[in-house]
Amino acid sequence: MENKIINLGIFGFGCVGQGLYEVLNRTKGINARIKKICIKDPNKSRPIDASYFTTDKNEILNDPTIDVVVELINDTEAAFEIVSTALRNGKAVVSASKRMIAENLPALYQLQVENKVPFLYEASSCASIPIIRNLEEYYDNDLLNAVEGICNGSTNYILTKIFEENLSFETALQQAQDKGFAETDPTLDIEGFDPKFKIVILLLHAFGTFVKPEEVFNYGIHHLNDFDIQFAKQRNCTIKLIGNCRRQNGHVNAYVLPHLIREHNLLYDVYNEYNGILLESAFTDKQFFVGKGAGGTATGSAVLSDISALLYNYRYEYKKIKQSNQPAFTNDVQLKVYLRYRTADQVHLADFYNISEKYESASYSYVVGVINLEKMKTATWLKNKDVNLLVLEEEFGR
User: Fold this and answer.
1) 334: β partners
2) Which of 198, 240, 320, 336 does the annotation list as catalytic?
3) Residue 15 carries which DSSP code?
4) Selection from 68, 152, 7, 246 nearest residue 82 by Cα
5) pLDDT, tens only, 192-204
6) What per-residue string of b and e applies to 348-382 under the rule 16 or more CB within 10 Å gives b?
7) What is the pTM of this model?
8) What pLDDT digit, counting tens, does each position of 325-372 carry?
9) What phi, psi does 108 have (nearest 5°)?
10) Can 198 be counted among the known catalytic residues?
């Protein structure tokens, strides 16, 4: 596509779609223009000329003059249909739909191979941080040991307001929603589903391992209360919701869990809607990426970066899939955790390998101990609203 103007057909004109429109019009030197935008509600007021819009998806999918389909909608099934149809029609595709991608990665990979067209989705993982491109290009031959970090700007904004401004969870959540960082229904964010979808995508590009989202355990900040916050503050810690995937003994494990973080950790100073990703490798030790993880223009800039890359015929090569050392996925890993509960019958302490600390009071009790990730994944008692769990750093308590 180099040296030609590419025509874009966009699906969706919400926060990210409008962000893309803004950054595209403010950026010089990118030979791309929007030809048509497909939306659901033709009567909704929008800030650009009505001639851009259609409600007929085929005006984009079947238009031979449209070179790139940009998918930015919230409907997972419809998004997959749009993307798969576009790829079969020989059109390059850019997407920001992390759930759709995570749930359909094997099929989407195969569609790229069969139809010999690129599918780029940098914006699906960490918004403004070019983490997929780095995993694909810079770390293609480096032996990665871990990818971990904050990959949900909504929850990081909420936690920042709680710890830095002493706001209540409810007030901080409302602020995140008012700023467009969190949805009206914040379940996917605060319960850790959104970062789980991102971790599933990063697993493929970091290690070449296909994993279904339901295999990865996610537990968010929805049970966090004042007792947990005081526990963290008394130990000079903060709380961050962290997605983690790590290679160990020929396997790779992954999860999304709230962590107690100390000041020495680079993630400690990642505030508000920012994301922070740590990579750990055999040859380069640790490297740190930080950038905005929520907001229309931050995500729109990542979409535009993918569009720009297509001008130079860029595509993911999925080099890790083709290598011979892909680690198998496992949940058989031990984690040191803080577990808070109200009464002993609400938890199953026999699931712990060991307990190193125990506290009881009239209001809440807690234990610190080691438990297997598989046990946590199947523990029905973690669904109790009076129960909460935080992962502790390895050196915690030493």
Assistant:
1) 372
2) 198
3) H
4) 68
5) 999 999 999 999 9
6) eeebbeeeeeeeeeeebbbbbbebbbbbbbebebb
7) 0.95
8) 789 999 999 999 999 999 999 999 999 999 999 999 999 999 999 999
9) -65, -35
10) yes
